[in-house]
Design a protein that fits this description.
globular; 25 strands; 2 domains; 6-stranded mixed β-sheet; alpha/beta; UDP N-Acetylglucosamine Acyltransferase, domain 1; Rossmann fold
């Protein structure tokens, strides 16, 4: 099994390092574009360079520890231009994930998550601490689910959707591409792409460009 390089050396990168260690995986280091972090160590692991230097480390697997869906998509696009890499998929040992759940490359499923049955999870999706996912939910690529989210059954979260901490999604909904469901919101209706919805019940407050 190859060692892992974590892309993103901020707070979530530290949590992904913790997750990887819980799985017994070895971390070679971080890549991050913050100049002040270059050459330093985070939790005993070195920052090896900038993200565009990933081609120097092709003998490792990579995991993108960036919370923003569009941020992760951008990093994947950049890496494709400079290297051919393999992506790790990390599922915390405390997560309960049915054996038939389809999990795409580069996904991060954190401690305390429950994924029941008939679920499809797209590439580079994050399901954060203590979130629950009901039956027959489909995730597109680059979805971010923050901690303590409750996703009911038969929901389709299109690519680049972001669901804020503590949100609740009613069953049989579709959330359009790039939409943000605000923290603590209760979503009871379908929502089009590139919207921001907040409240209980959640309502559109903004359209994204």
């Amino acid at each position: 099994m190859k060692d892992i390089i974590i892309i993103g050396a901020s707070g979530f990168g530290m949590e992904v390092l913790w997750l990887a260690r819980r799985l017994g995986r070895n971390i070679s280091g971080f890549l991050d574009d913050t100049i002040e972090k270059q050459g330093k160590q985070i939790m005993g692991v070195p920052v090896l360079g900038l993200i565009d230097q990933c081609g120097k480390h092709e003998n490792n697997e990579f995991i993108i520890a960036i919370g923003s869906p569009r941020g992760r998509e951008s990093v994947v696009s950049r890496i494709q231009d400079c290297a051919v890499v393999e992506y790790a998929t990390l599922i915390d040992p405390s997560a309960i994930v049915d054996k038939d759940v389809s999990v795409g490359e580069g996904c991060i499923i954190c401690a305390g998550v429950i994924c029941t049955v008939g679920i499809e999870i797209g590439r580079h999706t994050i399901i954060n601490l203590n979130s629950t996912v009901g039956h027959n939910v489909k995730f597109g690529d680059y979805v971010t689910v923050a901690p303590n989210v409750s996703i009911s059954g038969n929901i389709y979260l299109n690519s680049l959707v972001e669901v804020g901490t503590g949100a609740v999604l009613r069953e049989k909904l579709e959330v359009g591409v790039g939409t943000i469901v605000g923290m603590g919101s209760v979503l009871t209706k379908n929502v089009d792409g590139n919207k921001v919805v907040v409240g209980n019940p959640a309502r559109v407050i903004k359209s994204l460009g």
